Amino acid sequence: MAGRWTVVMAIATASFSALGTTAEITTLDALALSDAIDVLERELAAIDLACSRFRDDSEVSRLARADGAWVQSSRLLRQALAAGVAAALETGGAVDPTVGATMRGLGWDADFRIVVSRSEPARIERVPAAGWRRIEIDDVRGRVRVPPGVEIDLGATARAFAADRAARAAFRATGSAVLVNLGGDIAVAGPAPAGGWPILVTDDHRGTPSDADGQVVGVAAGGLATSSTTVRRWRTTDGIAHHVVDPRTGRSAAETWRTVSVAAQSCLAANTASTAAIVLGEQAPTWLRARGISARLVRPDECVVVTGAWPAQQELGRAA
Known about the structure:
Helices cover 29% and strands 25% of the residues. It has helices at 33-51, 59-64, 75-91, 100-105, 112-117, 158-174, 267-280, 284-290; strands at 5-7, 12-18, 21-27, 71-72, 136-138, 143-145, 178-182, 185-189, 197-202, 214-219, 223-228, 233-236, 239-242, 245-246, 251-252, 259-264, 294-298, 304-307. The longest helix is centred in the N-terminal third of the chain and has 19 residues, at 33-51.
């Protein structure tokens, strides 16, 4: 789950609920907003039908029921799965698209609003990831296969993948520069305003634009993403769990970092790196620097570490 982001300047903006979060789209041309909204709604409906593990009619759910057989699949699902596999390859498995059973074992087995509303803590079962190398994608025949018992969860990549797709599609459809924000996974397309899209990066997801601490950064291209251990949390019989899992252990990742924010050439790349950093813990700054990734890592005590070209951290509080 991404942290809270706020677009400081907006020419025309609309928001609505989608994919279990808030979807927001901003255009530089106010007249383009209506068409951009239509594009975003179509993109999100398509990604939900392909990738949701909470819909019985989704392609991911059909894949889980296939008992190891090949399943005919849409091009969108194959692309989303390929993105998940690429993220696993890039991160050495720290981001793994086969953690569906892991998430279910931790108690996240339904829409998150249902999970947190339960009166009893979730009884958990340790289920390490099944292994991303076992996913088979056949683009020639338009099909996908996973071994029996493997459950796909693209939560670490699909929303960022959707943000990138939607931003590009909205720009093509309207000709206006566009910013898409899916619960903090941000993608931009088209010529940005002077100085880039100004975005307030905050660590406290409960804050509001007027009172949140953080740092304003300008985004001219690509994307931004934050992974956090503070937002999607629920009670279990083993204590509090959060949604960023360590595929190796089948448990929520150690809370070395409260949030990790990354700027990259795409929202998908940013989300992949930010999620991996949470899982990697103390190794994260070294891993990010070795790849030239610009990131802002915040510890639970609010100590901030930056890597790459991320702007130098000012004192926590409103950064200019």
